From TrEMBL:
Keywords: Oxidoreductase. Belongs to the short-chain dehydrogenases/reductases (SDR) family. This is 3-oxoacyl-ACP reductase. It comes from the Bacteria. SUPFAM superfamilies: NAD(P)-binding Rossmann-fold domains. GO terms for molecular function: oxidoreductase activity, acting on the CH-OH group of donors, NAD or NADP as acceptor. Coiled coil: none annotated. PANTHER family: PKSB, RETINOL DEHYDROGENASE 10. It comes from Mycetocola zhujimingii. It holds the Pfam family adh_short. InterPro entries: NAD(P)-bd_dom_sf, Sc_DH/Rdtase_CS, SDR_fam.
Length: 291
C-alpha cells in the first residue's frame, strides 16, 4: 500500500515561509490530520497559520530557534507531550552564506551559524523524535532531509555551506542504513539534493550549464514524491547526477577543468548577493528554507 499523508501528523522546520510553507500547503492539500510549523519568525508563523487554517487540517505553530539544542528539545517534548509523534518530519530550515573566500569569512556569523542550522539542527530534531517514531508502528513514517547539490560537489565561495550539506548528506543516509539494519524499516529517510532554487536565498547565483534554477514549487514537488515513495536519494535536476558521476570517474585535475570551463560550476557563485535577510544575524535567517 502506497504511503499517504492523509490523516498524518506532519512537522516542518522553517515552515513559516518559502519552501517550508509550500511543504505545509502540500500536506494540507493531501489531507494531513495536523501540520506543525517551527520557525524563528513569530509574525510569519502567525500569518501563515492564519492563511492555512480552515481547510480541515489542524495547524500548530511554535517559535523555535533550531540552532539551539535546548529550543529543539523543549519544542519536541511539547509535541510528544501533546501526542503528536510526527508521521512525516521535514528538516527544511537552512541558511546560506557565500560570495567570499573561506579565509575572509566570519567564524561565528558564517561558520558556526551555518553548521548549527544546516548540519546540527536536523540531527538534533531527528534525535528527539526518532525513538517515538520507531516505537509507533501503527503506520509508516517518513523523514525528509533537505540537503543540496552543494553537498555533492566542491564549489568556490561557498565552502562552509558545502561542508554543512556534505555533513547532512552523510549523516542522513547513514541513519537510513541504521534504520534498515536494525529492522525499523517502517521509518524511511529521503535525502533531497537540488541545485539552486529560486527562493531568494541564492539571489544572483547562476545555474551551471544545463542546470536551470528551480522554481520552489517544482523542487518541493520532486522532494515530496521522493519522500512519499521512500526513495533514499533525490538529486535534481539530472545534471546534478551527471556531475556527481563525472567527478567520481575523472581525475581531479580533469574534473576541475570540466567543472570550471564546461559546466561553469566554479563561477556559479561569483555574482551571488543572497536574500536581504542573509545579511542579518543567524537567528533571523533560520526561518528561511533552502532546497
Amino acid at each position: 500500500m502506497a504511503f499517504s499523508v492523509a490523516n498524518a501528523r506532519v512537522l516542518v522546520t522553517g515552515g513559516a515561509s518559502g519552501m517550508g510553507r509550500l511543504y505545509a500547503e502540500r500536506a494540507i492539500r493531501e489531507g494531513a490530520g495536523s501540520v506543525t510549523l517551527w520557525d524563528i519568525d513569530a509574525l510569519a508563523l502567525d500569518t501563515t497559520a492564519s492563511e492555512l487554517s480552515g481547510y480541515g487540517t489542524l495547524v500548530h505553530t511554535r517559535v523555535v530557534d533550531v540552532s539551539k539544542l535546548d529550543d529543539v528539545r523543549d519544542a519536541a517534548r511539547h509535541e510528544l507531550g501533546a501526542g503528536r509523534v510526527p508521521d512525516v518530519l521535514i528538516n527544511n530550515a537552512g541558511i546560506v552564506r557565500g560570495n567570499d573566500y573561506f579565509w575572509n569569512t566570519d567564524p561565528e556569523r558564517d561558520t558556526e551559524a551555518t553548521m548549527r542550522i544546516n548540519a546540527l539542527a536536523p540531527m538534533h530534531v531527528a534525535r528527539e523524535f526518532l525513538p517515538a517514531m520507531i516505537t509507533e508502528t501503527t503506520r509508516e513514517k517518513r523523514i525528509l532531509n533537505v540537503a543540496s547539490a552543494a553537498g555533492t560537489l566542491s564549489n568556490p565561495r561557498m565552502s562552509v555551506y558545502a561542508a554543512s550539506k556534505w555533513a547532512l548528506i552523510g549523516w542522513s543516509d547513514s541513519v537510513r542504513l541504521e534504520l534498515e539494519r536494525s529492522g525499523n524499516r517502517h521509518v524511511k529517510i529521503t535525502t533531497f539534493c537540488p541545485s539552486y532554487v529560486a527562493t531568494g536565498m541564492f539571489e544572483g547565483a547562476r545555474g551551471p550549464l544545463m542546470t536551470p534554477v528551480l522554481l520552489p514549487d517544482v523542487a518541493v514537488s520532486r522532494a515530496w514524491q521522493a519522500m512519499l515513495s521512500g526513495k533514499p536519494f533525490r538529486l535534481t535536476p539530472w545534471t546534478v547526477s551527471l556531475a556527481r558521476g563525472l567527478k567520481g570517474v575523472l581525475p581531479t585535475v580533469v574534473w576541475d577543468q570540466v567543472a570550471d570551463r564546461v559546466f561553469h560550476v566554479y563561477s556559479s557563485m561569483d555574482a551571488f548577493t543572497g536574500h536581504a535577510a542573509t545579511a542579518a544575524t543567524a537567528t533571523t535567517t533560520a526561518k528561511e528554507s533552502r532546497a
